């Protein structure tokens, strides 16, 4: 069975939409310098859902891998792709994301790919299932990008392995009702991620950065977390090589708003965290949450493993909006 529907990009807050509108150009590739950083209703996605069903975590982590790759490139550039570029996560088998230009073309704007990946993620979260799907992105009616979700080759992922993986990383969450809030106690988690810039182009660059998660507060719907993380990556893409100052975001997620704040430590050496590093962090952050099935409001501390665990940044995720103060001064996170 084949199901076709059109997805319109949800309006993003005007606070972030500061780029000039694009100038319509017929029968030509749009002038990238005139396009907005964030998508608007001139960009549309046609989703064609096919069979079979695929493990949701594998599809979402494959999208996250593709999003990380694309948002760390030069946002204003185009890619030449002769064959579809594939993305997956070896820890979550079952689904693969393929990115390719429009038909009869080999060049695709990086921002169009990023926008399409964001909308593909929102689609899997809204439908609450993942299948083999073709997403066709158009700008002002012209086809500009194709994103496909396909099953991983059977030689790599057998049917039994896919079922086991889907069960092991189920998004169903245990909830203990305490008072009027649904919360549950969770031990802390940790993860590592590669920095965005190498030592050849960034002073004090480390080979590995380390993050620690402190869980507390309300339970969080995994769908809200995924779309919030994708929204932040989308916003950071144009400035991925710039130093991270204080970054604040309120994302209109699936069931509620998700508010987050990240800031780098008030110091200059040995490592200065960049916006690209935050993108890399967000791309891998779902891994410990999926593997341990832990979904809750959280604080995140980032360390530089090369310098005896020196803190280089802190961040937080909260459900709703208006609960975070302006920034995270002096290494503390204040909740109103």
Could you explain how this protein is built, in words?
Strands 1-2-7-8-5-4 form a six-stranded antiparallel sheet, covered by helices on one side. It has a six-stranded antiparallel sheet with strand order 11-12-15-16-14-13. A two-stranded antiparallel ribbon has the order 3-6. Helix 1 runs parallel beside helix 4, helix 2 runs antiparallel to helix 4 and helix 4 runs antiparallel to helix 5. The chain is built from six helices and 16 strands. With 336 residues, it is of the alpha+beta class. It is globular, with a radius of gyration of 20 Å.
Structural topology:
Layout: E1 3-8, E2 43-54, H1 56-71, E3 78-80, E4 85-87, E5 95-101, E6 107-109, H2 110-127, E7 130-139, E8 142-151, H3 159-168, E9 176-178, E10 181-183, E11 189-193, E12 209-219, H4 222-236, E13 246-252, E14 257-264, H5 275-284, H6 286-292, E15 296-304, E16 310-319
């Amino acid at each position: 069975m084949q199901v076709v529907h059109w997805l319109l990009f949800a309006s993003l807050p005007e606070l972030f939409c500061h780029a000039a509108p694009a100038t319509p150009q017929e029968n030509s590739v749009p002038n990238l310098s005139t396009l907005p950083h964030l998508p608007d209703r001139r960009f549309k996605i046609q989703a064609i859902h096919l069979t079979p069903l695929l493990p949701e975590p594998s599809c979402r982590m494959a999208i996250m891998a593709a999003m990380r790759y694309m948002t760390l490139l030069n946002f204003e550039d185009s890619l030449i792709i002769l064959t579809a570029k594939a993305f997956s996560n070896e820890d979550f088998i079952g689904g693969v994301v393929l990115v390719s230009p429009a038909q009869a073309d080999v060049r695709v704007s990086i921002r169009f790919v990023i926008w399409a990946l964001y909308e593909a993620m929102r689609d899997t979260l809204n439908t609450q299932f993942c299948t083999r799907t073709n997403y066709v992105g158009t700008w002002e009616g012209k086809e500009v990008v194709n994103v496909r979700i396909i099953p991983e080759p059977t030689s790599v992922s057998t049917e039994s392995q896919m079922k086991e993986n889907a069960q092991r990383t189920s998004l169903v969450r245990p909830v203990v009702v305490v008072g009027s809030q649904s919360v549950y106690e969770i031990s802390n988690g940790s993860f590592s991620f590669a920095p965005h810039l190498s030592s050849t182009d960034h002073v004090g660059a480390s080979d590995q950065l380390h993050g620690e998660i402190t869980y507390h507060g309300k339970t969080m719907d995994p769908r809200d977390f995924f779309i919030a993380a994708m929204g932040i990556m989308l916003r950071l893409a144009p400035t991925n090589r710039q130093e991270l100052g204080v970054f604040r975001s309120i994302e209109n997620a699936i069931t509620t708003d998700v508010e987050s704040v990240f800031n780098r430590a008030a110091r200059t050496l040995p490592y200065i965290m960049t916006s690209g590093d935050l993108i890399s962090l967000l791309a891998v952050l779902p891994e410990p949450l999926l593997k341990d099935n832990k979904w809750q409001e959280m604080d995140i501390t980032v360390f530089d493993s090369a310098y005896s665990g020196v803190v280089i940044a802190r961040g937080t995720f909260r459900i709703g909006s208006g609960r975070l103060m302006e920034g995270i001064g002096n290494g503390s996170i204040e909740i109103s």
